[in-house]
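Allow me, if you will, to draw on your knowledge of protein folds for a short while. The matter concerns a single protein, recorded as an amino acid sequence and a row of backbone structure tokens. Could you please explain, in whatever detail you think fit, how the structure tokens follow from the sequence? I remain grateful for any guidance, and I place the record below:

…
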Amino acid sequence: MGVGGQRMPDGRTGGSARAFELLEPLVRAATVRVHAPPDGYGSHGTGPTWGSGFFIAPGWVLTCAHVVGEGGAAVRLVGREIGITFSAGAGGATGTVAGRVECVLPERLERQRPGRLALWDLPDLALVRVLAPVTHACVWLTDRAGPRLAEAAYFGCTEDLGIAEITGRTTRLRGTAANGAAIRLGDDDEIEPGMSGGPVVDLARGEVVGVVKARRHTGGGGLAVSVAQLRTLPMATTGQNGQSGPIGLYRRVMQAHDLYHHDQHLSDLDSRRTWTDVHEELAAADPDPYGGRRLTPGELTTLCGLLAELPPPGSSEAVRALAEAARGEEPDPALPAPLSWRDGLGLLHDPPGGSGEAAAMLRYATDVSVADHREPPSPGADEELWDWVRVTAARLWRPLRRELAERHDRGLAERARRRRAPAGRAPYGAARAAEGLPPGPSVLLEAWAHGWEDVYDWRVSVLAGPTRPAQATPVDSGVRATLARLPEALRAPLAEGFRRCDTHEAAALLEVAVEPELFGLAVDEWVVAGGVPVGTQRPVVFRYAGVSQTAGGRWARVQAGPPAGQRADCSRGRPRSPSAPWLAGLAEHTVPVLCRAAEREPTLGALHGVREAGYGVAVCRRPPGDPGVSCAPFHRGLREELAEAGRGEVLPLRLRALRARAHGADPDAYWAVGVGLVWDDPGRPLPEDEPLRGDL
């Protein structure tokens, strides 16, 4: 009942009042108002409130199906665009963005819906993806399949005095209904219109357990939907990246959820409380009765993040079997099936005896680290999980540490045996086919700073390629263009260059030869033809202006692969300036990665150092406008991309595909917005003539 168990005037205990105080800003920051789609991004003409929702992962909003169905029974739900107004930062600022309904539960709501005043069928959920990359907060979802009946709070949008705002109320969870799919809310307060779709938070555990669905017509209280019902996503749903069915989409969203909170926990860019910080404070007020035999909130957040780095499990039964082996007894078969590694952790709370939760989770993590995966994990991800288990177990009792080491050794031996059995077959299935750049001519864009002024001379040419080295056929040129005017000035020359180089089989490469301070130029976002950004249509790369300094050995080694990314201008989010000896001493297959603005230090100096060290392949990016946004998702996404590519020669085309996914509103590719590839191919030398000089 909280500290001292004393009852407050509003009915809350002292402990729950403190929990509400800690959790309220986090939940409100992630709760959104749902309404008609805006006329354009940033429009405020949104009309009346349809209901509420909340961010569960970057780019994903959970709400009720009846909320997105506002407007009549004839409206199609899946694919419908809606408007989302969300908290855009401190000080009460809000933003508005469009979202598209990805799926609804149950699936039959597309064919059959109740009348206007009737309740929609359970679970009455809708998953919405955001159609633009925006910075926002996310809630912490419970990993447990069933809620505990305890004090809680619910949040949503109300319009007192005609002003829309996110508010929270307290209540108590009174029970479940519909075989656990729904949660009964107490009658402590009345749920107001517009709060449907908002989150329900367990105040003791500090986690979202439900979605507000309905209020009683006769007074206070109402009904919420258990968030565990997300595991029942419809079979017909097709997620991005070819992941079809409930397993692909659910796992994808939960992976993004866990990585978000893991990044927030590790980041030192923002001093505001994270969900893990609040969980630590809640745990301090309600000590572990078993003397440290549970994982701390920080350890649990880290474990979820490490599990999310791994490929998803092959089946629900694989998760359940590992959880049973770690727990020592069969999990409740009536609970929704666990679909992700995280769901397996939810089966390990309060194991038999009440004192072995940490041990069960560490056993489970050990088994996951040596499990067979359908695809190769990110380099070192399984070893990193095991290293974390060993370090975490060091604070526990010695017999457990010995048991885990023996368990890990047995698991490695068994995995090796299984992989030897199907001789001649790749351990992770068929290799992914990939092609390099087309060997023909490319379009070359060159730009030079005009003295000390912020204007530029430019030239567009057709570069013949390896068959006729350094031979360029001019298309057009110009002088004294500002950076803001370059896209319009170059639209027609680039279109002509593409017409000359494109074939019916492939779109030609666009090579942008500039000084490193212009590697942040948003060429990939320019619209040249077709109404879509050029970077989604064809590979776009940057080159160092002037004579190439690329070392042939480094170039060949990266092309053959596997390319290995190496942070060059930051260390765990902190800026750093790499020294020349350090750059020169890296392995030949290294791809330097730079995450800060190209025209600023230490990145500009790092780019010059990378050039002088002979690196022909590097990755940079235009960082997001919010300096508080962690660069960890960018580095993680790029690390996985390099690992999956296998060899450097396919990177230009793979980054083009990433840009296309991001432009198509795939939240899993938002990390790649602004990515730039430095590709200084010594086999495609640049012209050596002097640049243009405009009138002085």
